[in-house]
Amino acid sequence: MKIVMLGTGAALPDPDRCQTSILVTLDSGEHYLLDCGHGATRQMMRANVSPADVKRIFLTHLHHDHIAELPFLLISAWMLNTVGAPLVVGPAGTSRFVGHLFEGGAFDVDFRARSHYRARQENTEAMRPDVREYTSGGIIHEDEDVRITAVEVDHIEPDIARCYGFRIEAEGKVVAFSGDSKPCPNLAVLARDADLLIHECTFSEEFMEHRRRSGVGTVAHTSPLELGSLAASANVKQLIATHIGHVDSLSPVLKRAAGKHLPVEQMGPHQLDAMVRDIRSRYAGPVRIAHDLMRIDI
Fold it and tell me: Which of these ranges, 18-22, 80-84, 169-173, 216-220, has the smallest mean pLDDT?
């Protein structure tokens, strides 16, 4: 099994990181895409994977940094002659979101214009995704190669939207992906004995404390110390920290944009060292900070 971290950033645009998207490729060559944040299409092509070959997409929640690339990915796959309707599996609200994209939606003109070409006319099903919603935890997809279970986590107020993490079982291995979440009991269920835990770690301890004190911005994320405790108690074999919230950036543009909710004078690569140090203070296994196009083989 090969995992490529297509995007490892968070909500703000970041010149060094695309937004959350993870490509899982089995030894059989089958692809499973977890979230579809901005930049995913370009990144998969850089990883030598055609968007036309990625036909199963799973969404943890409907924040823009996890779904913004979906229309571009599907249109690109259509133009690259994918065959058949792609599968899009997501939480409640996914059908409404996808239903506003193509025919009669935001990209209706593009759809109708390209449909004049014979190759597109004969394959309009590529732009009519098979959308399947899940409204609670449990198995959300199972085929001859893989089983994917959704576990509800705690990130957005549930009266607005429910958020999930995924547990992927394939080839005798378990990969757990947290989605976005602050600590909650279900994360332990998600991560239990995983061969690989890919978990959000948006802010360093220093930045989390700043946000708690200032009351600006959400703290519905998992801190490095909390992540170290989780990985240790869940007995995971290795840990990748991702969804890095710009704490390491040196971009002047990003610093100006983040000034109201981050201590920008403390931004820089040294924050990643601090995150690793704090995780390792509680978790003795292998830990790495994700970067775009990082590849993990298990």
Answer: 216-220
Report CA Rg, the chain: 19
Instruction: List the one residue out of 39, 42, 34, 4 whose CA is nearest residue 18.
Output: 39
Q: pLDDT per residue over 53-90, tens digit each?
A: 999 999 999 999 999 999 999 999 999 999 999 999 99
Q: Where are the domains of the chain?
A: 2-295
Which tokens hold the place of 272?
A: 């990643």
Unique residue bearing structure tokens 């998600």: 190
Tell me the CB-side half-sphere exposure of residue 281, using CA atoms within 13 A: 11
Topology adopted by domain 2-295: Metallo-beta-lactamase; Chain A (3.60.15)
Residues in the chain: 298
CA–CA separation, 80 vs 57, rounded Å? Answer: 17
Helix 224-233 / helix 270-280 crossing angle, nearest 10 deg: 30
CA proximity to 60, closest of 77, 39, 37? 37
Q: Which residues are identified as catalytic?
A: 65
Residues 151, 165: contact at Cβ < 8 Å?
Answer: yes
Q: Are the C-beta atoms of residues 41 and 51 closer than 8 Å to each other?
A: yes
Alpha-carbon distance 73 to 54, whole Å?
9
- Cβ-Cβ contacts under 8 Å for 248 (sequence gap 6 or more): 16, 267, 268, 269, 271, 272
